[in-house]
């Protein structure tokens, strides 16, 4: 790994003091650990590698002038309610100079980008790129996001009464969240976070602005202060990468931040890069009715007595035979093995050559591969509880109630009387001590 020569760097306070240098190296690793822990208070990432990537991407936004490439963070999920918007909430309070947009025009966005670029946060991306017809109307936005991945790719517009051509910079890191995959040209320039629905056993803190925002700002400010003194060093770094070509361009800022921090982070960053890049190989667009296919395959296994393995032909025969299901409409012969493979690829479920009873080998699926996806996206409804015998009403007690929200406005409900003489003010909750959702 090449790094700038130490004698070429700008000296700072305590330059030449090895003890101080060692302290600051440990400080960077500790700050990344702190940020990683803060993210997990409010978000359940899909994997440890994804959590490391999110942490490093946030840190990299504070050193954007040092980078040659501005990696996108693609936050995608098969369905709604997978935590995409909550992750954007966390990013909004921790990245450098956030510029959040849902429906801003491309001209408004590139006019907001300067030599000290903001961090773009784009929500509801499926309303921009969700279908071929809609995406065609938003080609300018896609072009802006593609061009901004690399430095020195300005967009030119004619402005002013003299109609002079003016170049506007596009370089800026961007996080883009939506249901389903983004256009492949954006995904190719992105660190991809495939969010999932939380299990009942996976808990996070409620994101309450009164406590969460000050907490996240404190973490952000400590990290930003440390990174500000490492800008020149970051610009000189040429980290060794475990991947090549555009994937290496995209991940290089994250790996460079890890090398600056030291500790376990250099190895974790490269492991996350290698693992996540490998997972994305061969992912395809247009995966169809993702949740319905899971539920119907579960029914197919149940109809065969819940075997450990089920041949592809048996699954297809069961799916296509259901007159109320959409699968027999997929083509002249109904759902095919190839289409089934595409539908399940989003959940990282793949067919393989399996050995069935009697030693026969056939192409098929293992029931165990579906268990996690079934639990997350289409859990079986719990049986209704038996009604308990009625009991005498308990004496009324004074309790606090959470406000009811209707149409975005809180509606007062019964609660404790306000503070007064002899009645102390309630204590504010701190992050990590409030309700767990």
Number of strands: 12
Shape: globular
What's the N-to-C terminus distance?
Answer: 44 Å
How can the largest sheet be summarized? Answer: 5 strands, parallel
Structure annotation, total helices: 16
**Strand-residue fraction?**
5-15%
Low-confidence stretches: 1-16, 284-288, 391-429
Task: Outline the structure in words.
Helix content is 41%, strand content 12%. It is an alpha/beta fold. The strands form four sheets. It has a five-stranded parallel β-sheet. Strands 8-10-9 form a three-stranded antiparallel β-sheet. It has a two-stranded antiparallel ribbon with strand order 4-5. The radius of gyration is 26 Å and the shape is globular. Residues 1-16, 284-288 and 391-429 have low confidence and may be disordered.
In short:
With 437 residues, the chain is of the alpha/beta class. The chain has helices at residues 18-42, 48-61, 84-94, 106-110, 126-129, 132-137, 139-147, 184-187, 209-228, 231-236, 245-261, 265-280, 290-303, 312-321, 337-345, 371-377, and strands at 72-77, 98-101, 119-122, 155-159, 164-168, 174-179, 190-194, 309-311, 352-355, 361-366, 404-406, 409-411.
Helices and strands, with pairings:
Layout: H1 18-42, H2 48-61, E1 72-77, H3 84-94, E2 98-101, H4 106-110, E3 119-122, H5 126-129, H6 132-137, H7 139-147, E4 155-159, E5 164-168, E6 174-179, H8 184-187, E7 190-194, H9 209-228, H10 231-236, H11 245-261, H12 265-280, H13 290-303, E8 309-311, H14 312-321, H15 337-345, E9 352-355, E10 361-366, H16 371-377, E11 404-406, E12 409-411
Parallel strand pairs: 1-6, 1-7, 2-3, 3-6
Antiparallel strand pairs: 4-5, 8-10, 9-10, 11-12
Helix pairs in contact: 1-2, 1-9, 2-11, 2-12, 11-12, 13-14
